[in-house]
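Give me structure tokens for this 639-residue protein.
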Amino acid sequence: MGKTESDIDALWREIGKLTDAGELRRLSSAFARFIAQLGGAPPPLVLAAAILSELEGHGHSCVQLADLAAGPAELLGWSDEQWAQLAATAAPLPKGVAGWSTLLARCEQVWVRGQFDHDQPLVLDGERLYLRRYWRDETQVAAAVRERAESTHPVDTALVRAWLDKLFVASPDVARPDWQKLACAVAVRGKVAIITGGPGTGKTYTVARLLALLFATAPDADRKRVALAAPTGKAAARLKQSIDKALGELADRVGDELPLRTLTGRMGAARTLHSLLGARPDTRAFAHHRGNQLDVDVLIVDEASMVHLEMMASLLEALPPEATLILLGDKDQLASVEAGAVLGDLCHDAQSGNYDEDTIRYVDQASGEAIPAQYAGEGGALAQQTVMLRHSRRFGGPIGQLALAVNAGETARAEEVLRAGDSVRWIEHAQQAQLLKLAWTGYAPYLELLQQGKGGDDAWIRQVLQSFETFRILCAVRDGEWGVSGLNEAIEKRLEAGGLLRRGAEWYVGRPVMVTRNDYSTGVFNGDIGVTLADPARPGAQRVYFLEGDTVRSVLATRLRNVETAFAMTVHKSQGSEFRHTVLALPREASAVLTRELVYTGITRASNEFTLVTPSGDVLRDAIASRTHRTSGLRALVA
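Here you go.
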């Protein structure tokens, strides 16, 4: 391509500078060298390979050729100057999308979809360039979801209507249409359904009634196999607890008409997706796959916004073709830290509805709910199986108002709610000392319980764990004074100085920890949170106790290898949790991770009280103005 060896060296030097500065992962640099070593790679391809790998680390499943042509600095969180310096070493770059498409199609390292496949590491699909693994996952997810969405089956609408009228008590306080009732009617007719909505909209309340409806209308209800799952142990435990409570209330209402307690008693505990699929240590493979599928008829997955692309591909592959998949989640929350924003892509237009005439007619007959005209349209098959719950029964106060304002990008309204006080407050020009004071107040109750010294009593242990779970400090970043690592150290020192805990070593009584990696030998999973207490059976030893619903389990502290202190945790790690009082700490300066979705997710972890702590108000304004964007082809492939 006209480049000399010294020119290539200049490209590697610039990649090295970005790597040393922390702007480019070493993995991305190594992948670019791998592509170059395959032979005949022109500098623009090497550059594209580095960029593609780096974008994967930012959650993108591919790169649009238009972004390569225009410059991906914003996607990467780089300055225009950084991109210009790197691009100059690979010049001349192709002109426009057509130029990039032509160049990539000529490279031996790139497979162009539709041509003979030589298992090249890069895939060019239309105007998107992929790492092969993510192209495979994305196309598999799209094909499986589209096939399920198109596989609706006839239902006895009269029977469905009769049962929905029993399961949903008519009330003048319920806004019309009743989207919860409507969602059940939509879900019961298909092999996939997506129920999305913000906090308090009743997703698990709805799915409990859906389960009852599925049992009531099935000819073989006593043999129906139902599984509950979520991305994390905490989310799985909350799902099971919420559904059990709702099903218990329903069982009392339907009485002998439907043996609901017997039918649902066989569901078993909710499990993490890793556990459900049979994850194997030190491998990406699962025990359940296309050749050994799950033994389920209905699979309900909560907190689906946290499910990344690779996991969704594995889940759909392991799900029997005749099974029904129900995805629950808030499409406006943060996506997984790994590549893909699957739920957001699948129901990106749920707000608009786009229900066709057949769906509107069916919903009216099966539920008695009339879909308003503004939600009519000509959406695809998946849109007909997607319902957005629109009325929050829990978030009608200041916390809900703040969440809605942030989600809508209404900065002025958000600041107005924050400054109004009540259950929401804003410490705008904060110092770390003010955050440490909040930590003292929030964590003192559980630490004072510890000092009462009732170790070994299950009721007391449960009380300690429940007390700890009422308060949490959430961070946007990991490093620095306002990050997880800096704050955890500062909080420990403050609590120790005040006599509420004594450290002395890595493990100490009262230390809260979060598991950072699945450990099948101890039965703990990434995201599980526990509190360290004295081991009543072994003087001088500690155990970490975990709360799952009303059940307490424990693991010897020295057996837990992958944990971190959890007085402060990232907003990402808090998904699937809820705290009576949530404190969200934003750093001093804006960054790519500070987005509207992050602030919204932090706010919606609070049930009763929310405090925002910011060194500068400008950071909040910048975050609300910044939307998360993840490049993928899933939305187009499913349509």
